[in-house]
Give the backbone structure.
Amino acid sequence: MQRIGVFVCHCGSNIAATVDVKKVVEMALLEPGVVHAEDYQYMCSEAGQAKILEAVKEKGLTGIVVCSCSPRMHEATFRKAAERAGVNPYMVEIANIREHCSWIHKDMEEATKKAVILARAAIAKVNLNAPLQPGESRVTKRALVIGGGIAGIQTAIDIADAGYEVDIVEKTPSIGGRMSQLDKTFPTLDCSACILTPKMVEASAHEKINIYTYSEVEKVTGFVGDFTVDIRKKARSVDMNKCTGCGVCQEKCPSKKAPSEFNRGLNTRSAIYTPFAQAIPNVPVIDRDACLKFKTGKCGLCEKVCQAGAIDYAQQDEIITEKYGAIVVATGFDTIKLDKYDEYAYSQSKDVITSLELERIMNAAGPTKGHLERLSDGKAPKEMVFIQCVGSRCADNRGKSYCSKICCMYTAKHAMLIRDKYPDVNVTVFYIDVRTPGKNFDEFYRRAVEEYGVNYIKGQVGKVAPLPNGKLLVQGADLIDNKQILKEADMVVLATAIEPDPSVRKIATMLTASIDTNNFLTEAHPKLRPVESPTAGVFLSGVCQGPKDIPETVAQAGAAAVKAIGLLAKDKLMTNPCTAKADELMCNGCSTCANVCPYGAITYEVKQVNDHGIREDRRIAVVNNALCQGCGACTVVCPSGAMDLQGFSNRQILAEVDAICR
Amino acid sequence: MSIEKEFRPKIVAFCCNWCSYAGADLAGSSRLAYPADVKIIRVPCSCRVNPMFILRAFQKGADGVIMCGCHPGDCHYSTGNYYARRRMTLLFSMLDYIGVENGRTRVEWVSAAEGVKFSTTMNEFVEKIHSLGENVRLEDLRCKN
């Protein structure tokens, strides 16, 4: 029989306001095995933990139940306290009477009753707990960064500067990401490429950083400290070691009709291409869907003109398998598709563009060489209308419920730049709210209004209609003057909502990292662990976790790097001792458990067993504790009931069920 | 004169540690109320829920059992919830056959970010159990006080 101590936390008034903690103490004392029960203001405080130590000493406790907040919050705290008191940390159970009780119930009597039952279940479980010893696993001192945008680049540089090897996997032919597509950045109006390209160069020149571009993560196995990752290096059709990046092949390529991804499809590129001039690596890729050689077998011009002999049509995809201790996801974002927003006539008129397309138009290396012009007829616009929140803050399910966060600022930037360069162009912005929190952000927006005379109208646009004269009729509302507005515009720019890059779903599944309903990766704790995934060893960098601007992305990228470094700096990790274990007398070696184990942790050995005095050799399941992650899949499929999960055993869970239904 | 006691169902919710338990925590920290009749048991994964646990709950007088896990494809252990899904489909149809109506058992996928879903699911489920009334099948009446 255990000697159990029950500690009921008030959590200030968080628990005590709705749960009669004295009553919980009183009722807990009636439970079998309980020799001590008390309540305290803050159990997690130094003084609260001291109470546990004291009670262990005085009453000789062997098991501890803390009725407090979620175990996801303070289980580790109380396990450490138990350890200091000389009690095995796995003899601690938490009854969650805050998140699962006091915070969701109003009636004191009802909440108290429930708290008593939850305490009872935890006590029943502890009665059956057994001391467990964590094992050790090694840490591979190498990090993988998925995504080569500014988030991934910054994370990789920070990890590499700490002395660890880093691999960046980027699916496009060059690192740089979305930031490389931007023209200027707010609120300083720095040229985006001017501040990004030095970082790109630094990453590629870093002796500890290895970059796989035009590559994708294909498979991830293993766990924190010891991931094994398959990376598919897609066939570039160009030998990276031989290519000098002279660019002659791109000039000579006769197939120049493929839409340029980098310029958002606003112009075309050759079949053999580097996405942009400063691409890293400066080695082109052959787009096999566009290349005449691959489509018809005729051509081969690039091979003929290449002095270095780098063109290799026979190149195949290559799978690289590498081990990593930590993985950072930095998959970034894309703008949403606008097919559900036909009222803005995006598909009908070339002069209705997204803000990211405007970035390309404003950029000197863009489709119009930086001249602001209508894509339909090349004329300079006189009236420009910006529409905010296209797909953001959307109440219906056409768009996204969240605020994309960056649009107010980049629209102020666009408006300001246009008014600065083309003072005769009128700029009107339709907005729901202008949201500019951030250092020097509101000042920036006010400059757009006050110094540059940008016309901000509070209200949404209901319809954009192309007119026969080539202009666009914008129908909107002015909520402040309470009137309808009809405006003829030459160009309409849509501040399109951003969403996580679609590739993140597949990656999250491979990493078993959780994802929310908007496909943003979930952080381990929304406030206290914002750059860690709940999956140990997986960290989050940049917009894959939620909308952010460049400064925030860079800050988060550094934070993710620090977390990864903290992991890589360890030589060994303690492993979860809640692993499966087979009862040697009951196991009949049928292999059912090994078939369902996702980690290949179960093997079979012939062992001599003593079955009621009869000694015989039997084939028995053996669990590798370093591989077992403790899911319990094997326990349920075992036909003889030999397999059980330590810390969540059949008897423990049944005892909880009994205690709840009593 | 006998006073009819208000029916307070006993409901057991099995929640996986990674998604649904965290979803329940989020419901809590967002103060999204659901009836106190629901009591949560934490399991590492929905695939840890042995049909035996559910049968035992009904045997001991539970009026409803709900199992929550990560969304299919998002299991922390890759495949656990697929096993759980098949297993529960079979178990629930057998339970229905012996008189534990389908409404008393439910599987729901709740992610760590879906506090609202957790709360609405529990509200719905409790309401359903109220409409079905007390469970009498499977209950071991010998242990009833």
Summary: Chain B touches chain A through 51 residues (CB under 8 Å).
